[in-house]
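dumping the sequnces here before i forget
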Amino acid sequence: MSRGSVGLSVIVLLLPLAGLAFLAGETASFEWTSLWRDAAWRASLAVTLYVTLVSTTISLLIGTWLARTVRIREAVWLSALLKLPMFVPHVAGAYLFLLLFSGGFPFYGLVEANERHHFVVILTYVWKEVPFVFLMMLGTYGQLNRGYLDMAKTLQLTRFEQFKVAEWPFLLKPLLDSFWILVAFISFAYEVPALLGVTFPELLGVLAYERLTTGLFLNANESYAVALVWTLLISVGAFVSYLVTAKRRRRIEKGVRR
Amino acid sequence: MRRIRQFGLLFALVFLSACGTTGADLAPTFDEAVQEAEQTTVNFYLWGGDDGINRYIDDYVAPRLKETYDIELNRVPMDTAEFIRQLSLDKRSNREAGTIDLMWINGDNFRNAAEAELLQGDLLDKIPNAALLNETAQATDAGTPTDGLEVAWGNVQFVLHYDADKVTNPPATFEELHRWTEANPGRFTYPEVTDFTGNAFVRHLLYAEYGETIRSDQTIPDAFWDELATWSPNLWKQGATYPKSLAQLDQLYAKGDVWMTMGFNERRAEAERNDGVFPDGTRALVLDHSIASTHFLAVPFNASNPNGAIVVINELLSPEAQLAKQDATYWGDGTSLDLTKLERADREAFLKLDTGVTYPDPEQLAERSIADFGPSVIDQVREGWSRVAR
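..and the predicted 3d for all of it:
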């Protein structure tokens, strides 16, 4: 590795750390219980978890299933088609869905933008993130050793058991990677929920931005505190989930290389 | 290693150069300011959510400045609260040469900026056209004395606009408007109170309920929020959500989803209607009272080109520029000048502009004009309204 790339990596790493240090400095004297006492933040946490987990889970399921289908059926056209939403920015996607779903089209009253069930927010995220999961999993399926599957078939395992022993162990790592990337991204984003969400409850990113920009520094500390806590929570979550699966992943990776 | 060192040096230089330059000083006289400002750029930060306003700046003001003073006007559209916040960060980090030269400001944003000492003072003496200003409009900004920290740019009143093709029997008071929403569920809403206009609408209801007493009490009774909550079931989306901004409400109105919109500036719907954005049947609706609001221009404490900003303000206050601003072609914004101080021809040109299909009756509007509540009420509306939106 050249010196230049080491330097660049250090800078890339230092920027978020500097950001975290700034957040920690700003919230040094913050009264943390005030966050929990504020009904707006409580409701925001609940709706954020709901939207994030539902969108992420659905995206992972559909993305993986599609990657599997494309590999098994060798459907190249499907793979090209699936990449299309990746070229649409999130704001544009959100606006597209706002246009589609604010005039009562296509299921009047059932799925509409700016409703508390947040279906259209979830739909937008699924539409945008499925191609991402698809690409992540397509690589995995490409590298998958077919030998395991053949062996499982030879042993006359049921289809579910075939999947469980010959595919699932290899999917775990990319799925976890995708999961945390999507959670980090969706849970604190602004554009999509700002356009398609509701006045109350607002998703964390929207509420944080609103508090941040009201007045001078009136509520800025709150937003800093939430950003700090959320970043730490996600980092810890990702770290723990890797620890828990570390042994298994290492064994599988060695197995693949052998 | 050498490369890293060079890179580090470059990195440090970028930061040093940002810190090193100091903000320019205001020239003592206007003529000197004009000379200093030649061939410079003025960065004008203003809310950019209205097409008419943007066109007025880009198509009318900017070319005039270029021609008369050789000044390049750079319009930067941004939410007011956002650039005030940016300035307060500048202040905290002692950034002496800022990016903002001139800004459009009023209300609680001005109060915040004045309290945090983000503005240059003594503007009025340096601007010749400030002598033409309407002194009442110039004196206070939503209850806060202006103290020469800002210069009145326009003077407007709050009105509602409705589509007469759909609303056959328009309400005459805020109480009747409430009844009207009950008879026409889903056809009315107002922006969230974090929005300037949405907050003002709620202040009108506050005045309808309690009149002048809020001014002396300065606290909003809980009963008011209970009363306001009774509006919700009949609003757009059953009040489960509200438009985030006036622009979003205008879109709903343009699409025909709701039948009324609102806003400061009694002439704001004319250009929209003429362009076919708003329905043909758009008419003004003045209810029991209407808050009068003045909006202002100010120069930040760390403006890099304060002289250019002064020249631009003077130009914006000229009778010609004010007349073009009030004309429905662009913006339709009321003048901040005192018509009695103008020359006769100018005065008559202003009076001639008072006809438009969507304009309210000027006398009726003047009669029902009330002064705005102070910033503390605006803050309270923001705090208390969350109960209604829940």
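Chain A has a mean pLDDT of 88.
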